[in-house]
Amino acid sequence: MTAPRSTPTRIHATCALLCLLVPTAWFQSSTSRAADCSVTTVNRTPLNDLGAGLYLGQFQGGLYPSGANTLPTAHGDLGASRAAAIRPLDLAGQPSPAGRIVFISIGMSNTSQEFTRFIPLANGSMDVNHTTLAIVNGAQGGQDAVDWEFPTMPTYDAVQARLQQAGLSEAQVQAVWLKQANAGPNSALPAASSDAYTLLTKLGNIVRAVRVRYPNIRIVFLSSRIYAGYASSSLNPEPYSYEYGFSVKWLIEAQINQMAGGGIDPRAGDLDANSVAPWLAWGPYVWADGLNPRSDGLVWQCSDYNADGTHPSTAGADKVAGMLLNHLLQSPFSRGWLGVIDLADIDRDGDADSIDDSQFVSILLTGNPASDQLAACDLNGDGRADGADLRHYLRARVNP
User: What does the mean pLDDT of the chain come to?
Assistant: First the structure.
């Protein structure tokens, strides 16, 4: 991948000083006015609740294709194989029992704030792998999507420095949480020039850059922004925060369609998971319509934000951190390496054994498993416990 001659870096002494002095702000103007706590809803439906319904009469909801919130089986199978390949690596990227599995964040100030709260939460959890997992916050204040599009950009050098400081290397990075946005958006859907579309293109560039910088990358989990109805500036207000959910949805769908033989999406670019991009899936979807509860009860209160109504307060960052940890501990694409419970340990007693074999087969034969049974046996994330999960279970049993 070659960066254009005029690749913007936007990292200089002034920006570096600003990021040190005001790490929670992108620009000074973003905190110049108080949050507007009166905007408790923007009357939009979260993607996971919109389902097969349409936004603006033309953009289908759901986190994945066809209005679904679960992965197509083929993409889930590919993700399961990538997750199974995650192993401790030494500094040179070679498998080693004494190596590390490195999980990093990439994003702007909100991402950095939220991941800063995620790290101690994960470190304090008994459910998290504290033996081989290493977590590093690579997200950086003031660095929105345009600053991460190409692998030669200084943002990646800054991540490398953080890895080295922790005694780690880029060759050990195997999973990423990516949460990005455009600063100062000005064009909403359905315009062809909308920021939702431009962010889609930038996200495509970013995941290709990630593949270059981190040769052993397996998985990228993506999230879009939280509610921005309380925002007091033009840094990232609604409807853009909501519409960035479509950017993420379309990026993942573009890879799903391309891997199924549908060709390269003209906006997202080449996302071949076998050559130029890591495997992509949703992390936690964190947008909800202010105080209007989502189907799972999620709301965003004004107290969840700092004074600018854009950046999360400690309470807001903790909320995202908790959603991220829960997602990773439950996802079949991460719980086997981030968590301490083996994928094949169906009864979660600490051992994958013949009892789990019997339970797995029994659950598959029921045809209508309870939600906890489905979560334990749906190893490709397609929302079903069936024969397609069997080979992933057998692989986990043979290679714990």
Answer: 91
pLDDT digits (tens, 9 = 90+) for 284-329: 999 999 999 999 999 999 999 999 999 999 999 999 999 999 999 9
What is the band of 344 on the pLDDT scale with cuts at 50, 70, 90? confident
| Cross-sheet strand order for the sheet of 133-136 | 133-136, 101-107, 173-179, 219-223, 279-282
173-179 and 101-107 strand pairing: parallel
Contact in structure between 181 and 141 (CB atoms under 8 Å): no
**Cα separations in angstroms, 19 against 24, 63, 136, 166, 356:** 8, 33, 18, 21, 50
Give the distance, in angstroms, between the CA of residue 64 and the centroid of all CA atoms in the same chain.
14
d(CA 165, CA 45): 43
Integer Cα distance of 150 and 213 in angstroms: 9
Question: pTM, whole model, 2 decimals?
Answer: 0.91
Strands annotated E in 16-148:
54-55, 59-60, 101-107, 133-136
Angle (CA) 177 325 250, round 5° = 40
Structure token pair of residue 95: 């498998």
**What residue has token string 């992509």?**
280
Q: What is the DSSP pairing of strand 279-282 with strand 219-223?
A: parallel
For residue range 207-265, list pLDDT tens digits in order: 999 999 999 999 999 999 999 999 999 999 999 999 999 999 999 999 999 999 999 99
Q: What are the two backbone dihedrals, phi and then psi, of residue 282, each rounded to the nearest 5 degrees? A: -70, 140
Q: Sign (positive/negative) of CA torsion 338, 339, 342, 345?
A: negative
Whole-angstrom Cα distance, residue 273 to residue 143?
26
Q: What angle do CA 376, 382, 383 make, to 5 degrees?
A: 60
Using an 8 Å Cβ cutoff, are 302 and 309 in contact?
Answer: yes
State the alpha helices, DSSP H only, in 51-91: 73-84
What span, in angstroms and rounded, lies between the C-alpha atoms of 364 and 277? 33
The enclosing H or E element of 249 equals helix 240-259
Q: Helix, strand, or coil here: 17?
A: helix
Closest CA to 393 of 372, 363, 369: 363
